[in-house]
Each structure stands twice: as C-alpha cells, then as structure tokens.
Write a structure and sequence with these properties.
The chain is an alpha+beta fold and about 200 residues long. It has one domain: Gcn5-related N-acetyltransferase (GNAT) (Aminopeptidase, 3-Layer(aba) Sandwich), CATH 3.40.630.30. It is built from five helices and eight strands. Strands 1, 2, 3, 4, 5, 6, 7 and 8 form an eight-stranded mixed sheet that branches. A hairpin with a 6-residue loop joins strand 5 and strand 6. It is globular, with a radius of gyration of 18 Å. It starts with 17 loop residues before the first strand and ends with a helix.
C-alpha cells in the first residue's frame, strides 16, 4: 500500500479510542501531522513521560499498527471576564474544567481529530463529570500566523461547539493561542434524557 493511502477509506468515526498504557506499543513511525512538533512530542517520548508523571492522560486511535492520532487530557480551570452562568445563579468567573492538552492527527487520517475530540467530550461528560465537579472542556487553540498558510485551530474547534473564553481578546505574538471552551451541561442533559427514554 502506498504511503499516501495509508488511511484511505478508513471511517475514523467508528475507530476505537484506546488509552495509552505502558504495554501499548505504538512507535509512531510514519506519523505525519501538520504540526511537526506534535510528531516530535510523540517520537521523543514527551507524551509518555507526561502520562508517567501523572500530568496528563493520553488516548490514541490507530489503524492496524499505524498511529492515526492522539489526545491528552488534564485538569484545568476556565477563567472568563463575564459571569457566563449568571442565569443559573452562579456568579463565578472561574470554573473547574478538563483541558485538551495535545491533539494531533495524521494529516492523511481524515476525521481522526474530530473523532478524538468528540470522544473526549463524551468521555468527560459520562465518566468524569458524574464523579467530580466539572462543567467545561477547555483547549488552547493554536494560532500561528508565521506559517504558510497561517495555522488557526480555532475554526476546527468552533465546528465542534467550542466558544472563545475571551471573545474580544486580541492574539498576541507572545501568546500564540486563544482559550476556548465547551459547555458540558447541555450534552449531559441530552445523554440523561436518552437514558430515560
């Protein structure tokens, strides 16, 4: 099979998401991500070191032995200027959250990134939120105007239902990302309704 067709015809919306464990051997040979640093993080063991240090946890999707993508999750907090839950009687500006730390998908694995984010949001809503107080999923959407074409991950996350934490924030060259969030409550309510049916 030609390298360019490594993932041809694979429906990643149906591929199993696996937790990265020490005995899971996925070297990442041939992994191609638009952001080269995410390939380096995997190959040089940064992702595994962070998992071992209990800084984050990682899940992957693969096709055969080929890595198609990975996502890391860690504890976070969402900070906003406006009281976004004021209608619910909550006047805080800071909320508990789970953060998508790293999201990397092989550029040939169409749909792998979306699958990982959608899986993570549902996992957080069904497995973490019932156990500890967490209302939001956060991500620092990378915006890099120095690449050609410019790279802006915020459009990808907006399509998946994420909003900007600071909608009027200007992008600074010293901070090449904008924090975005996803409100888990509507999803949790929908999932609970489906259980009741």
């Amino acid at each position: 099979m030609a390298a360019s067709s490594k993932f041809a015809g694979v429906d990643f919306s149906q591929v199993e998401v696996e937790k990265l464990t020490p005995d899971l051997d996925v070297p990442g040979q041939g992994f191609r991500c638009l952001r080269g640093e995410f390939v380096t993080y995997w190959r040089q063991g940064r992702v595994q070191r962070e998992v071992n240090a209990l800084i984050s946890q990682c899940w992957i999707i693969r096709f055969g032995s080929a890595l198609a993508g990975y996502i890391t999750l860690l504890a976070d907090k969402l900070e906003v200027d406006e009281q976004i839950l004021i209608k619910e009687g909550v006047q805080y500006h800071t909320f508990p959250a789970i953060k998508i730390g790293l999201l990397a998908a092989d550029q040939r694995a169409k749909g792998a990134g979306s699958r990982l984010v959608e899986w993570a949001v549902e996992y957080i809503a069904t497995e973490i939120a019932p156990t500890v107080g967490v209302r939001f999923v956060t991500v620092d959407a990378l915006c890099d105007s120095d690449t050609n074409p410019p790279y802006d991950a915020s459009g990808f996350y907006r399509k998946l239902g994420f909003e900007f934490a600071q909608p009027n924030q200007e992008l600074l060259s010293s901070i090449p990302y904008r924090t975005m969030y996803f409100d888990l409550k509507p999803l949790i309510e929908q999932l609970n309704e489906n259980l009741d049916d």
